[in-house]
Amino acid sequence: AQSVTQLGSHVSVSEGALVLLRCNYSSSVPPYLFWYVQYPNQGLQLLLKYTSAATLVKGINGFEAEFKKSETSFHLTKPSAHMSDAAEYFCAVSDHGNQGGKLIFGQGTELSVKP
Amino acid sequence: ETGVTQSPTHLIKTRGQQVTLRCSSQSGHNTVSWYQQALGQGPQFIFQYYREEENGRGNFPPRFSGLQFPNYSSELNVNALELDDSALYLCASSLGAGTQPYEQYFGPGTRLTVT
What we know:
The complex is a heterodimer of chains A (about 120) and B (about 120).
Chain A (H helix, E strand, L loop, with lengths): L2 E5 L2 E5 L4 E8 L6 E6 L5 E7 L5 E3 L5 E5 L4 E6 L8 E9 L6 E4 L3 E6 L1
Parallel strand pairs in A: 2-11
Antiparallel strand pairs in A: 1-3, 3-8, 4-5, 4-9, 6-7, 7-8, 9-10, 9-11
Chain B lengths: L4 E3 L2 E4 L5 E6 L6 E7 L6 E7 L2 E5 L6 E5 L5 E5 L8 E8 L10 E2 L3 E5 L1
Parallel strand pairs in B: 2-11
Antiparallel strand pairs in B: 1-3, 3-8, 4-5, 4-9, 5-6, 7-8, 9-10, 9-11
């Protein structure tokens, strides 16, 4: 069965600093992996996805993630944080084997950006 | 192109009552998934509908039921509401089901409070 673990429920960075949000997955099949962002009182917005093509995936708003099979990781990074990046971030794996691609989410990481 | 919409935005119900939440999928999408997001948690998969048929169900009791209509909009019904049903209910639409990693696009959610 697939699962996702996000290390750190809360990450705080200064504006302009590197953002690193950690995600480790467990999957019995080649995984499809996603990062979503959720702003307060809103739904989830897709940042980027990995679907077995290039291991370095670029997304919106300057975010990127690298798929590392040996480490079962899919960490999200951004070189320079902006105040508008403050939000909740969710890593998810797609259970595409049996249930039409349901998403299994991690617990989320809240990103705070200090001026 | 119209995105995923959900109604109502907020809802307050009493324990034991029944509730219906509605979702309109993004134009061209034939698959709708429903998720429950408790406060401070990641979304949990409830079920998915593909071309009006249930296409997978998470670990939720039978009092959670759904429908998908010919225009691919969907309803989530919850009977005999319990306090623990208080959550943000998210609807996501996607193009297709099965083994493709079709991206899921989320609506803004319905905040349900059970008192």
